[in-house]
User: Fold these one by one.
Assistant:
Number 1:
Amino acid sequence: MNILILGYGKMGKVISQLAEERGHTIAAKIDESNVDELDTLDASEVDAAIEFSQPDAAVNNLTWAIKHNIPVVCGTTGWLEKKPEIERLTLSNGSAFFYASNYSIGVNVFFKVNSFLAKIMNEQPDYNVKMEEIHHTEKKDAPSGTAITLAEAIIDRVDRVKRWDLDSDVNGNEHALPITAKRIDPAPGTHIVTYQSAIDDIEIKHTAHSRKGFALGAVLVAEWIKDKKGVLSMDDYLTF
Ligand SMILES: NC(=O)C1=CN([C@@H]2O[C@H](COP(=O)(O)OP(=O)(O)OC[C@H]3O[C@@H](n4cnc5c(N)ncnc54)[C@H](O)[C@@H]3O)[C@@H](O)[C@H]2O)C=CC1
Ligand SMILES: O=C(O)C1=N[C@H](C(=O)O)C[C@H](O)C1
């Protein structure tokens, strides 16, 4: 496949390397410094685009790919208020758009465990739930996209939890899920969900050791999305 890299930072570099190791070619590596290369790129030669840039760049990149009918795999977090707009554009254009807050298989297993635990804890009102996420200091958004996905699953299943709150001192308020976002180098991504009671704590934790799991997942999805259409997610790709 010929893959276009939209966002050639820490993730774009690992993704390009892995894609080449898997026998793909890279159509172009687009960064802040060479966005104008998109004006002359032959889109008909591109099989899929992988977009890992930054919150204020994602919408333009995705719009460009969708309008050029290039299936696009997006991992950028922190722009999701605009996602409905991108989904509408995808559908009206008959293109393909895939979004996941986390492409690693391990985190997607963790999402399932989190949902299962939340369902059980709905029946255990003595426990308050809280979350901690730890990432490197260059991360632009907080809380992480992964933390938001985890929180949304808890809010959907635990009736007493109505919202999440970032870095607030709401421990003990049973209606809020406090999320603490720590920035410590070189953490690639750690997420901890804790249910706390006077008697005991129940804790689940995922720790990424590198960016390889995120990057491999994105390349595998790009291979899968090549001939697909529509708004797609990990629920369409993963069979577990
Ligand atoms: N969904 C997932 O599995 C994962 C998502 N991420 C997300 O991916 C994004 C990128 O992460 P990193 O690579 O660590 O960040 P980074 O800061 O190392 O790289 C971002 C790159 O985007 C470039 N950029 C800025 N404007 C651009 C534009 N208009 N077009 C193309 N590129 C542009 C910047 O120059 C920079 O090189 C973040 O939003 C992060 O949260 C990161 C890891 C995993
Ligand atoms: O910015 C990062 O690095 C990461 N971002 C994603 C997120 O916001 O959840 C995924 C991963 O945790 C790494």
Number 2:
Amino acid sequence: MQVVGVTTQQEVYVVSRERKFRINEILVIEDPALNHPRGEVVETLSYNRLIPMGLDRSLVDTQVIRSLEQIGYDIGSDELNLAKLRLFSEAPHPVRTGCPVREPRFDEVRGLLVKTTPAEGMVLGEIRGTEALADTLDEDLRDQVHIVEDGAMRPQSGVPFLFDIRAMQQYPHIGIFGGSGSGKSFGLRVMLEELMKLGIPTVVFDPHFEMDFSETVPELEAYAPDFTNRWVAVQIGQHVGIDFSSLSTRDLQGLLGAAGGSVTESMVNVVQMLHRKKDSFRTFSDRLNNVAQALEEGKQGLERRLHGGDIDPVEAEKLKDLLTLYQQYNSLPLSSLKGVQWRLNRLEKAGLFQQDIRPIERALEQGRLVVVQGSAWLLQVFATYVIGALYRKRREYKDARMNGEDGRFFPPFLIVTDEAHNFAPKGVDSPAKAILKEIAQEGRKYGVFLVFATQRPTLLDETITAQLNTKFVFRTVRGTDIATLREETDLTPEEGKRLPYLRSGDTFVSSAVFGRTVFMRVRAAYTRSPHVTNPFEELQSIRQEQDENVLNVLLARLPLFDTDLLDAVTHVNRECGLRWDVPRLKQELDRLAAEGRIAKKESPLATRYDAVR
Ligand SMILES: Nc1ncnc2c1ncn2[C@@H]1O[C@H](COP(=O)(O)OP(=O)(O)OP(=O)(O)O)[C@@H](O)[C@H]1O
């Protein structure tokens, strides 16, 4: 291998007759005057005489070809491999043309590729293009990952990609971007496994109900850490919720805003007038309902009932209270009261006020990963509250320490979410946005970090995007998203061009920690989501199971006549948990007969179904 063509301080072309170049591999240029600079292959090309004019002009210009001829290559008959090598650091003067080029030993490039140890960092995958370094790899970096490629699992064959979690103190927050099916969720799962391994307190918002770590991938049983006590899943309304009495008036306004529809000025006014500190859900909603009733009946209506005679003293007392409320609040529009009532009831019906967030706090204090599950809208409402509450706890502890007080310990933690653009959308307001922006900007001071995944970087709030110091960029096809990612990362034009063609699971990691982009393949996850079955296979197996059950019940009752199916349908329904009527049973019998699983004989009087002989 040697340098050819016109060189610059940043880039050179390298040629080889025998060796094919791998994209992203690292090579050493033996130019002693420049202290043997190292570079990464950013484009490759094989040149064959059968396609004499097929050279890609973006890669090789006539200068290169001329120089190849000058140093003895026969352009007409040799097959030549060419690569564009980008130097890691700019050279003080251009590289000498003709310099020999060689593969590095691992110790020469370790500093560029590995920033931590497998025990301390997140072991996320394998760096692409590092196969040639496998032989000289340090012992502690061998056999760290398995890779699934082309449907098969293989052991590690290059350098593992380790992410130094401690560097987040300096370079906080992670973004994970990629189109549908690009491997984003898979990458998130691997990251969460590593956080569990390291015992880092983490809250994950899981709108897809897919983050479950109880099922180990069979091939990796021998390698998978035991995650049993490392994570817990909680459902909003069932295990966790909001302690209403801890809400401030502002919190409550925020929650109502998240419950759906827009909250008008006048509704905000209603909440400000009616909410009292330490109100329980009951006290607040009773007050709200009473005021609404008072306004609905009006002063005259209430007085008419009060003085209409024939009412018991309790009722009279109540009417007087309502009259007082009327006098106090008759300036509030009834429609706004109703708006607040509707939103409050929606939250209550979802079970939001029946629990509190203690299970989450407890799990974080134990260094666990907490998966919070709920429907998309409820998750947003709850996330706003829980993130605010947890962040406050951590901040209070750190601030107390800073002031020399003891404070109650609350751990640093990570907040992880897929579909992050729903939580913090660009250009439009959302309930969680204010607190997430604050964490994006200030969280580092307190040890609170974000891991945000989204298919649509263009739709994510730009202040937050700019604060994501490490970005994992998976396959992205949409032009606007590619443009956003190009702007927000140090991806080169060549890398940008590759984005639409990346395989699922391959990703560029653009990180301030590395100071450059690293291309890697996410490792095989130890665990898998319980519902990874193909929906069509699921459909087929459910059908088969149902057919078996129904046939079992029917076989004992054959022969059956279509004129007398009532008894059979009752049995089938009871024993198979179905709700068929007689026509439906007849349709199913006809289908089973058509499939040859039972026999069917028609006569002028009735159709007879029987066992197949
Ligand atoms: N690193 C990997 N190694 C092996 N297979 C992978 C890898 N990453 C992803 N895959 C496979 O690719 C498919 C798509 O991955 P994944 O579900 O993570 O996509 P996604 O980007 O999250 O898409 P969506 O946003 O639509 O959920 C999955 O079937 C997964 O098994």
Number 3:
Amino acid sequence: MEVLGLDFRYDNGYKVFNNINIKVERGKFAAIVGPSGVGKSTLLRLFGAFLKPESGTVLLHGKPVLRPTPLISMVHQSIVTFPWMTAEENVMLSLKTKNIPKDECKELASKALEMVGLQGFENLYPKEMSGGMRQRVSVARSLAAEPKVLLMDEPFAHLDELTAEGLRQDIYNILFNPESPLECVIMVSHNLTEVVELSDTVFVLNNSPATVVGQIDIEMPRPRNSRDPVFDNYLDTLYRLLTKKKGGTR
Ligand SMILES: Nc1ncnc2c1ncn2[C@@H]1O[C@H](COP(=O)(O)OP(=O)(O)OP(=O)(O)O)[C@@H](O)[C@H]1O
């Protein structure tokens, strides 16, 4: 998946991006970081074709993505589950538009729930689940339609730290398990530790209009230990790119 020469401005004239080029290879977990308000969520929405660029293109398998497609799915920051539906019904919702027979929908939903570690909990309602379980349901819903690309906007932000840590430890294996047709993940996060823990590549956005000011490949075996000095070096590099202002200091 890639974006080429992307420019974007909102209807009120505010120019968010100037010539963004990002390529995420098959099998890779990519993260987008940047100061608050730089345009991270906007960029995810452009990746999913939920917004239209002023110029430039979004490509999947080399073909332009001109409108939202089930091949690209989004997990939102706020945990969106419908309280009156069971875990299984919440997941089946994402398959509604696909014209799939009910039995097959149930099978896909059950497979997705199993992938996120919720087998046996299909009939629970959201109020009977922890925050972490609800976020797993959101992830299962995004995976059920078997997308090629998963976009995640701060997926751990509304979880308490312990729950977030548990889900973070699982998420890479959930997403890139051998049965999953998923090809890549693009996550927005402001939590640099989380980013170094999970990503293969980090794209750093900065300035206004924003550009990509750095691309860092994280070459550490998984699971990654945040106490490893190499981990700290990556954090320092990202921090430096995030705090550097255009033109440097005089
Ligand atoms: N619908 C909109 N119309 C006009 N401007 C908008 C709109 N949505 C966002 N913006 C502006 O565009 C810029 C980028 O917003 P965006 O939410 O993408 O940033 P972000 O990097 O994700 O921020 P944060 O880290 O705080 O979540 C911000 O300055 C924001 O105020």
Number 4:
Amino acid sequence: MSDVNVTKICCIGAGYVGGPTCAVIALKCPHIKVTIVDLNQARVDAWNSSDYNLPIYEPGLEQVVRETRGRNLFFSTDVDRGIQEADLIFVSVNTPTKKTGVGAGFAADLNFVEKATRRIAQIATSSKIVVEKSTVPCRTAESMRTILEANSKPGCHFDILSNPEFLAEGTAIADLLNPDRVLIGSLQTKAGKSACRSLCEVYANWVGLDHILTVGLWSSELSKLAANAMLAQRISSINALSAICEATGANIDEVAHAVGKDTRIGPKFLKVRSVGFGGSCFQKDILNLVYLSESLHLPEVAAYWRQVVEMNEYQKRRFTRRVVDTLFKTITGKKIAVLGFAFKADTGDTRESAAITLVKHFMEEKALISIYDPQVEHEQIWMDLQEAAPDYAPQQIKKQVQICPSAIDACHEAEAVVIATEWKEFRKLDWQAVYDNMSKPAFVFDGRLLVDADKLTKIGFKVEVIGRGAPGTEMTI
Ligand SMILES: NC(=O)C1=CN([C@@H]2O[C@H](COP(=O)(O)OP(=O)(O)OC[C@H]3O[C@@H](n4cnc5c(N)ncnc54)[C@H](O)[C@@H]3O)[C@@H](O)[C@H]2O)C=CC1
Ligand SMILES: O=C(O)[C@H]1O[C@H](OP(=O)(O)OP(=O)(O)OC[C@H]2O[C@@H](n3ccc(=O)[nH]c3=O)[C@H](O)[C@@H]2O)[C@H](O)[C@@H](O)[C@@H]1O
């Protein structure tokens, strides 16, 4: 069997993964025509917009799209044509946590993957390599193969590969240009290995072969869940230790630094965030792993991973509690400025953002909340809050919450500032001006260890830093 020389790629799903990933493939493989298709007309229109007002904010992305769009990169809602033309199809659709039915709250909703797979089977009139890019439970490729084989036209052969994506939002382009590894899983058959080589060749246009790992299909699928679970586990571990620091007077920064110096542990992903981890994937993928473990009758394994998510929820509750306790045990009617709403800096994405939970908690305490984020659309903030607090009427939410055009506006006459996202502009804020316009005493709760606490204290702020005891309890020997 000769390997397919890939000249036309279709990516189903023009989201945070499909868009940047395939834009970079187009950039690095000018000989390949890459078409990204999506059912969402507004999203495709934004990708095609003449002023490059792209649907997602990602540093460096606009430049890549400017260079490739119309050359060998195309965005379209014509899913069928995209499928028909391609030699290789990435399935990069969303796989959110199921909200209802069997496995609700834990299992991945594979409906979008299944629909895309069925469409491929229905439309394709020639053989294709189908690549699972979405994060999916272990053995999903088998279901895809069954669907494709049961519905394929005579003469059409489908090879399924797993090629999970490891990019992080905010650094997507850098991660894609210089990945730690590209992982490709295939069946260990002649056809499977041949398909794997075809995809390797695409990546080999810019990724060294020593960074392209080829493994079995199930290992590849599980490695993606495992990587996210282990990254999140490190964050929950350091967050758990931050609670001990606060109770003992130890300093979590010093502890994390000392621990991370051990080369077996390493320094990355040990940054304590009082607001806990957010993002569309960590929680979803761990819950997915929990569900998988339970389905495999491994309750101890399920309980182990579940605890990572529980610790994260505890961290968010603990932070709200600290705000309330510090503000003299009540925030009713008090104005709290929340700086940042995205789940991390350099993205406009709010999925599972810890800021949503914090604002919800503040609403329950009857505070008045003013929010500012440099990238998140206002409409998105209202939608997120309504979804998080379905019992609140929209007017009630708008009575308690306002969205401001700048950080300075949000902080005006506030009693406390809560930094919920580590946007650089918050570090550079004119904190003296913020202080002058706030109610006194003026509190800053740095949920991201972003600002210079000593400098702010000198201005007059009362600064609360996670992982350190309250001011005055530091070691003074
Ligand atoms: N967001 C991230 O940073 C990362 C996400 N992942 C995984 O990648 C997958 C995609 O995630 P995102 O890009 O964030 O999701 P997303 O929600 O931003 O994009 C998915 C897109 O697929 C489209 N879609 C759904 N069904 C379709 C169909 N049948 N035909 C055509 N288009 C369809 C949707 O309209 C949507 O625009 C998920 O499985 C996620 O777990 C993996 C690594 C990083
Ligand atoms: O599957 C995915 O979706 C992706 O999930 C994460 O990427 P992402 O969620 O975009 O961003 P991260 O940088 O991992 O941050 C996730 C959350 O953890 C928090 N975090 C991160 C690092 C840290 O030390 N402490 C910490 O609290 C961040 O503030 C953020 O809320 C992984 O890092 C990616 O490898 C993976 O591809």
